[in-house]
Amino acid sequence: MSPPAAAAVAAAAAGGGGGQPQRQQQQGGFGQSITGIIRIAVFWYFASKFFSPKKPVDPSNLISNLFQKGEPLDMWLYLSEHQRFNDFGNEASLVWHETNIPYATWGPESTRTLSLDYHPSDTLKNNGSLYAHVFFARSGYPPDPNDPEYQPQAAFGRTHPVVKYLPKSRSDKRKSLLGNSKDGEVFEPEPQVADDTEADSKDEGPVEWISYWKPNITINLVEDFTRYAHNAVPPNIAPYLNIDPSQGNYYPTISFNEFWLLRDKLIAINETVTVLPLNLEVGPISMMKWQLFMQIDQSFQIHRSYGSMVEGEADELKRVFLEGNPYLLVITMVVSLLHSVFDFLAFKNDIQFWNKNKSMEGLSAKSVVVSFLCQLIVFLYLLDNETSWMILASSGIGCCIEFWKIGKAMHIEVDRTGKIPMLRFRDRDSYASNKTKEYDDIAMKYLSYVLFLLVAGFSIYSLMYERHKSWYSWVLSSLTSCVYMFGFIMMCPQLFINYKLKSVAHLPWRQMTYKFLNTIIDDLFAFVIKMPTLHRLSVFRDDLIFLIYLYQRWVYPVDKKRINEFGFGGEDEQTPSDTGITTAKEDEKKTN
């Protein structure tokens, strides 16, 4: 059987050696994904429930459920390689039979389970298909239409595929740039369940499809006794409603619930497979829960189509609910919200500080420039790895803001003397005319030696032992990894300037406080969410740097005569002569 065609465009692809920085970018939006998905799902449900147009309906034009609450049902489950099934006499196809299942009631008798081993046929091993045909009937009635006791209004059923087709993962384009694999080692792509969207990849050649076995089949009977208008069934329910053509009423809705079936649980089917596990479950589900599952799945699809969620994040989110402690999960969602609030406040105060700042005295201008270069490296790395546009937009905006801050810390001029206009950076007088520039140069000089050695060492290691798509990818991935690992060195010049000036009054403490609160939240995530060890250490590294800032704030008392973060003095009472001097200094700073 030919596999289905892929329906979407390829999501973020794995890039150069070490995809660790990209995973760190994805973790930043984890709380936002949870909030957005739940918000869309809940809004959609209540909008369809309460805000649908209500018109007077003739009672004779209403359709209702053919079955009553608590009515006993018998169930048959057949496995067949044919999509249409009518071989009810084939005992080999019948894998499960249950009797007296009460409909739409909750209790021990309402839920039944069965685990078995299925031996695949040669056809199934060679990319074949398999379907689960489930039938329900009132107790004592047969599901076979050819049986003399069969009644159309007493039996109903549904078919569901047990095999899912997914495109095979493309071969890894990364290679050793030195051209010598150690001991003749051949690099193979890691076995994983591929994304449906990989079928539309830009790679040349036909797409190879692989069949995957679904080890879990959950059959839910939806508790729905709503009386719908014949021509006004809600659009989110209409596709699943099975209408009896003779009376116009509807049968109970059968739902094959795959919401908790994660992709890494699927089993690839090939010629070497002899036994496949199959876990079966049948039970009731409430109307609200069934609709909520559908809306969340639709929310996942919407987020993927807009690029705000990469493939695999939906499964990771579900895994948190499946494997996580419920109390810890609630705490995680709360701190995710707080993280977003503190992040916004830190961003707001950072812009406010640099917008109002009139003096670079006591501030490291070189750290601002290096911060822009780091942000630019991360942006180019994400662009090279075809990351989703939302992450690219966030990184690009951050890059623009960092460049804007350079304009506030230094004079930027356009040099048109040559054939090509060039940007020329010049230190502000408030920065160059005092000890700040001298201390900044000293700190950056020695720290740059350490940084260059670390970057060179890691780049050589990455070149020798890791694979990359190209030399350009190697440069970007090495620089990006160094930004994440050794970026804290760029915060050290400001510590050195504080130490030499014996003052911290020039720092934007409000913005730094919000960032420190975010760092505390990151500490919590470091224990809750799976992440690389290096990233977990980087979280505590930021804690250490800020604790040093706090120690300096305690050791160096605030000098009220020093210009504060907004460019004004801290003394409320001044003599007239002092006031004139202060005004003259302010006018001089505005011109610089």
Automatic annotation (TrEMBL):
**Domain of life (superkingdom):** Eukaryota
Segment Disordered: which positions? Answer: 172-203, 569-592
Q: Which Pfam families match?
A: CLPTM1
Q: What parts of the sequence cross the membrane?
A: 327-347, 367-383, 446-465, 471-492
Q: Where's it found, cell-wise? A: Membrane
One annotated Gene Ontology cellular component of this protein: endomembrane system
Q: Which UniProt keywords apply?
A: Membrane, Transmembrane, Transmembrane helix
Q: How does it sit in the membrane?
A: Multi-pass membrane protein
Does the keyword Transmembrane helix feature in the UniProt annotation? yes
Question: What InterPro entries does this protein map onto?
Answer: CLPTM1 (IPR008429)
Q: Which family does it belong to?
A: Belongs to the CLPTM1 family.
Q: Which PANTHER family does the UniProt record give? A: CLEFT LIP AND PALATE ASSOCIATED TRANSMEMBRANE PROTEIN-RELATED (PTHR21347), LIPID SCRAMBLASE CLPTM1L (PTHR21347:SF0)
Q: What is this protein called?
A: CLPTM1-like membrane protein cnrB
